[in-house]
Amino acid sequence: MFKPLPVAIGLRYLRAKRRNGFISFISLASILGIAIGVTALITTLAVMSGFQREIRDRMLQMTQHATVSAHGEPMANWRQAVDAGNADPRVAAAAPYISTEALLSGKRREPAMLRGVRPDDEAKVSILGERMVEGGLETLTPRSYNIVLGRELALWLGVRLGDSVVATTDFQATPMGAVPQLKRFTVSGIFEAGYQDFDRGLAVVNIEDLQRLLRMGDGVTGVRLQMHDMDQAYAVARDLALKLEGPYMVSDWTMENAHLFRALKLEKTMIAILLSLIIAIGAFNLVSSQVMLVTDKQSDIAILRTLGLTPRGVMQVFMVQGTLIGVLGTVMGVIGGVLLTLNLEHILRLIEKLTGAELMPADVYYITGLPTDLSPRDITIVAIVALVMAFLATIYPARRAARTAPAEALRYE
Fold first, then answer.
1. Between vectors from CA 116 to CA 110 and to CA 120, what angle results, nearest 5°?
2. How confident is the model at residue 25 (pLDDT cuts 50, 70, 90)?
3. From the CB of residue 68, how many other CB atoms can be counted at a distance below 10 Å?
4. Where would you find the membrane-spanning parts of this chain (predicted)?
5. Cβ distance 231 to 65 under 8 Å?
6. How remote is the C-alpha of 231 from its chain's centroid?
7. Average pLDDT over every residue of 317-345
8. Rg (CA), the chain
9. How many CB atoms lie within 10 A of CB 222?
């Protein structure tokens, strides 16, 4: 959109040595400020995206992509739902489950989600069996009344393998009034999922044992679905529910964990906005350097105007020169951000080696190291934001240059 002459002059000003060294220093500071801001923003967004991916993957490894459940009552035709789910090519596996809240009592008491599963099917819809640190899911045989606990839940209850845990569920109406349903289970396994909601809040038993405890007959809470493509979870579950007779509730992983993903997205957005201020500082430095450059080039501007360059052409000269500084800073920042992100794990290990301290100890954090996820979309957005800020920073100095009066500027030359 620029004429060749303004572009040529703008490029010449960018390459030429400045008579005022302070102007060159401010221009360099502008480039570095934009580059550092872009680098910091890309790296931070990559780390936050990495943590989000890690949390999501750990969560989805232990839970279903989607569920189909009866509305307010046990699901009686769950076998038909399982068969229909397994027949769908979009579904990797389908399995029945029972889920209820319970108060578990060992040496101490702790609330937890009590889940009834069929051990053979559980391996198809989650990696719970791979996360066992003691015992195994094969111990959850019918009428054994064994229970598998999360590692933190077992610690809070103060129980070990072989100890007894009493599960208290909903009150049941009897001739003697409302009586809580109690059942003693034996701890036959302990798992560690690496996700606190499961490690501290989940207990697993055989589905038939939980049916007897809750007096559900042959009914279940619903059917869990594992997808080949988790983004299709809701659509597949809805299609399955429409094939069954009766009203059913459909839920997917985005709905069940909406509050978590909203919080993570809000946190990422706020940090991105705050770190964008670093780029804004570089843009303000660019304004300063351009204003000083315009002042320094008053005589050049006057001569160009005398030779016939229009005010619009003068404005374009300094906009080209300032925008190129922004482009240079953005390119350096993108390269620096990508390189820093790719080597962040090595830098973390080097810092730990030099300081002798473990920055993310495994006994404190569920996620050790710094997982990163470089998103082309995030990089593109950051680069566009930096370029827009740099472009806007050139408008005021360029307009000021365009308003220069040739006679006034050449009066003392």
1. 130
2. confident
3. 28
4. 21-48, 270-293, 314-340, 379-398
5. no
6. 15
7. 89
8. 32
9. 25
Query: Is the distance from CB of 98 to CB of 223 less than 8 angstroms?
Result: no
Element (H, E) at 108: none
Q: Which of 286, 293, 283 is nearest to 400 (CA)?
A: 293
Buried b (16+ CB within 10 A) or exposed e, 345-373: eeeeeeeeeeeeeeeeeeeeeeeeebbbb
Q: Residue 343, exposed/middle/buried by CB under 10 A (0-12, 13-18, 19+)?
A: exposed
Residues in the chain: 413
Q: What is the mean pLDDT of residues 151-178?
A: 83
Query: DSSP 3-state assignment of 196?
Result: helix
Q: What is the dihedral of CA 351, 355, 356, 359, to 10 degrees?
A: -50
* Pair of tokens at residue 156: 């809070």
Instruction: Decide if pLDDT at 21 tops 60.
Output: no
Residue 80: how many CA atoms within 13 Å on its side-chain side? 12
Q: 3-class SS at 192? A: coil
The structure's pTM equals 0.72
Q: What whole-number distance in Å separates Cα of residue 408 and Cα of residue 381?
A: 44
Question: Model confidence over 60-79: pLDDT tens digits?
Answer: 777 778 888 877 788 888 88
Check residues 55 and 120 and name the one with the higher pLDDT.
120
Residue with token string 């699901």: 75
Residues 10 and 317: beta-carbon distance below 8 Å? yes
- Please provide the average confidence, as pLDDT, over all residues in the chain: 83
Residues 13 and 293: beta-carbon distance below 8 Å: yes
Which tokens in the block code for residue 143?
Answer: 């009428």
| pLDDT for position 1 | 44
Torsional sign, CA 67, 186, 197, 359: negative
CA angle, 179 then 183 then 189, to 5°? 150
Residue 275 pLDDT level (bands cut at 50, 70, 90) = confident
pLDDT tens column, 130-139: 889 998 888 9
Secondary structure class of 106 (helix, strand, coil):
coil
Exposure of 335 by Cβ count < 10 A (0-12 exposed, 13-18 middle, 19+ buried)?
A: middle
Using an 8 Å Cβ cutoff, are 47 and 347 in contact? no
Whether the predicted pLDDT of 348 surpasses 50 = yes
H or E element: which one contains 163? none
204-221 burial, b at 16+ Cβ within 10 Å, e below that, comes to bbbbbbbbebbebeebbb
